[in-house]
Write a structure and sequence with these properties.
The complex is a heterodimer of chains A (163) and B (418). Chain A has 163 residues and is an alpha+beta fold. Chain A has a single domain, classed as Nuclear Transport Factor 2, Chain: A (Roll). Chain A contains 3 helices and 8 strands; from the N terminus they run H-E-H-E-H-E-E-E-E-E-E. The longest helix of chain A has 19 residues. The radius of gyration of chain A is 16 Å and the shape is globular. The N and C termini of chain A lie far apart (34 Å). By secondary structure, chain B is an alpha+beta fold. Chain B has 9 helices and 19 strands. Chain B has a 7-stranded antiparallel beta sheet with strand order 2-11-10-5-4-3-6. In chain B, strands 12-18-17-16-15-14-13 form a 7-stranded antiparallel beta sheet, with helices on both faces. A 3-stranded antiparallel beta sheet of chain B has the order 7-8-9, with no helix packed on it. The chains are: A alpha+beta (163), B alpha+beta (418). At the A-B interface, strand 1, strand 2, helix 3 and strand 8 of A face strand 12, helix 5, helix 7 and helix 8 of B. Bound molecules: fe (ii) ion. Fe (ii) ion binds next to helix 4 of chain B.
């Protein structure tokens, strides 16, 4: 039996939805320096194929523990890593929200990410779901834990920007 | 297109006089050469990586894979023995196992319900005697003459290899002493899976085979290696080669670093990236081996590599998916007796490699850059003389392309390219 979850107040939903959309737009706009700021100081970020996520395997494709590791990623991709220029466009589904006992939100949001290369060719790059725990710090939503669960575990060429 | 010998090519191929220091770009784009490789290499006297034993731990388990482009299924029978066979029904050629992984007592082709045991022997045929006395197989139909086409298999340290050829020597003599010892060092203990993913790289499979043997590029292209002193050419290290030349190991000892000026003087972009990590836990390690080697990558002909970088341990299998497309699998491993802390370190170091690897992500595109750069230049050739023109092990330096020359030495031999 599915237990009836306590209802989410409409203004809370708007707050969370805007937050999830801001995250996606920051990446789409290439504003990657802001990416770690969407997480709590000790937030966890992982991109993991669905097979591994469902099997409880610990290793995915990208893993960061804390904002420090996230800003290392951003610095590396902006200054060290070599790849062909490209951009993302995230399309998010409507999030399903639940409230944790401690007041944090649990959210599941389906997504598509389209990637456009420098030659102008664009195609679907990733499909999957965000499985999030979102805490409120001073009333502001922050990702405590984001698992990017990929249906598509066969990545085309490479994955450099976070999803 | 089935081509059996070099003479079958409609445009004859001749290796340049300068030998394996030259590699004609045609080898990366000619569909006839690609078709010939399927016969000479993947159906020929080599050991093809199929899967890990831990992919099929229980009786009845199966795992599908490919050998060259040929679909193959690996099974574990009720006695615990491992078998491999072409995943192609003996009747009309449909795939028999549709799921990549599964468990069953028999394998049944969904098309006409022909069923096979876990060794690939034909057991049942729907309507063999027809219905109501009409139809059915001819009187002289002999079930034992029809089965799934078998591969011979051998297992070493949990790696399952298969071959189509009766001429392939035992796996240990195929690998040779040094390659076998390295596999035992890395994988000769109870293993557990940590995770797997794959990536499509838009290049011929041999460009990736070169890439894993290319110790010259590793610290030039991969900034992260250099900056964080994970792997540099000014550490003690070298290239070990099998007697057959086509397998190799490139290794480095991190603690022996003596920073050389060449990295700065050569204006190497990879040495210009000054950074301290905000999340230094990324590079937490423990001394796992007592030989001082902290980085090794081993290339096994034709399309397997095993890396052990700090404590990150992975099997890389690169499967041809067409003349200019390859699927590269990253299969990450830990040991059964790893502590939780050790597992965490392996997971953290997983950030270094793979399709999003801080170190390795460039390899996702660099081989494609060669594929694209050489388009329309099939009659031109690569120049591979770094470290000399010989094909001998280079145990004291990795500023060399000798392992690439080794790959092509073996490739020429097996392809019959004089
Ligand atoms: Fe590389």
């Amino acid at each position: 039996m599915v237990e009836a979850a306590p209802p989410i107040a409409p203004d809370s939903r708007v707050l969370i939805e805007d937050f999830l959309i801001d995250y996606a737009h920051a990446i789409d706009d290439g504003d990657l320096k802001r990416w770690p700021d969407f997480f709590t100081a000790d937030g966890v970020y992982q991109i993991i194929p669905r097979e591994s996520f469902d099997a409880g395997l610990p290793m995915g494709i990208m893993y960061c523990e804390g904002r420090g590791m996230m800003s290392d990623r951003v610095l590396a991709l902006e200054t060290a890593n070599i790849f062909e220029p490209h951009t993302y466009c995230h399309i998010l589904g409507r999030p399903r929200l639940n409230r944790d006992a401690d007041g944090a939100f649990k959210a599941r949001t389906n997504f598509n990410v389209f990637r456009t290369m420098q030659d102008g060719g664009g195609e679907m790059f990733a499909v999957g779901k965000y499985v999030d725990t979102i805490a409120l710090e001073d009333g502001r939503p922050m990702l405590r834990d984001r698992r990017v669960v990929l249906e598509s575990r066969r990545i085309d060429i490479l994955l450099v920007f976070p999803l | 297109m089935v081509l059996a010998a070099a003479e079958d090519l409609s445009d004859p191929f001749e290796w340049p006089d300068a030998g394996v220091t030259r590699v004609p770009y045609r080898l990366f784009s000619d569909p006839e050469i690609y078709a010939l490789e399927q016969q000479r290499i993947f159906r020929g006297p080599v050991w093809n990586y199929l899967c890990l034993e831990i992919d099929i731990p229980n009786p009845g388990d199966h795992k599908t894979t490919t050998v060259g482009e040929i679909p193959v299924v690996v099974t574990r029978d009720e006695n615990g023995d491992v078998h491999a066979m072409v995943n192609r029904c003996a009747h009309k050629g449909a795939l028999v196992c549709l799921k990549e992984r599964g468990n069953s007592k028999t394998m049944t082709c969904v098309y006409h319900s022909w069923s096979y045991d876990l060794r690939g022997r034909l057991k049942g045929i729907a309507f063999r005697d027809g219905l109501n006395g009409k139809g059915g197989m001819p009187e002289d139909f002999d079930r034992d003459k029809h089965r799934l086409e078998p591969l011979r298999i051998e297992i070493i340290c949990g790696l399952v290899f298969g071959t189509f050829s009766d001429e392939t020597p035992s796996i240990e003599s195929y690998l040779g002493e040094k390659m076998t010892a390295s596999i035992r060092r890395n994988l000769g203990r109870p293993l557990k899976p940590l995770g797997m993913h794959s990536q499509i790289i838009h290049n011929n499979w041999k460009l990736y085979a070169e890439n894993v043997r290319d110790s010259y590029h590793a610290t030039l292209l991969h900034t992260f290696y250099t900056t964080f002193k994970i792997n540099r050419l000014d550490m003690d290290g070298g290239i070990v080669m099998a007697d057959d030349k086509w397998h190799h190991i490139s290794f480095a000892k991190r603690k022996t670093l003596q920073e050389s000026e060449e990295y700065q003087n050569a204006n190497v972009h990879s040495a210009q990236y000054e950074s301290k990590l905000d999340g230094p836990e990324l590079l937490n390690t423990w001394d796992e081996y007592d030989d001082g080697i902290t980085h090794s990558i081993q290339g096994i002909f034709p399309n397997l590599a095993i890396h052990s970088t700090l404590n990150s341990l992975a099997v890389r299998f690169f499967a041809p998916r067409g003349v200019d497309e390859t699927e590269l699998f990253w299969i990450y491993l830990g040991c059964e007796d790893d502590t939780e802390e050790q597992t965490n370190m392996r997971v953290m170091q997983g950030n270094l490699t793979g399709t999003a690897g801080l170190v390795s992500l460039e390899d996702g595109c660099i081989n494609e850059f060669v594929q694209r750069g050489t388009r329309g230049s099939g009659d031109r050739e690569a120049f591979i003389e770094m470290g000399g023109r010989d094909v001998e092990p280079s145990e004291a330096s990795r500023a060399t392309e000798v392992a690439i020359r080794g790959f092509w030495t073996g490739y020429r031999r097996i392809m019959g390219f004089a």
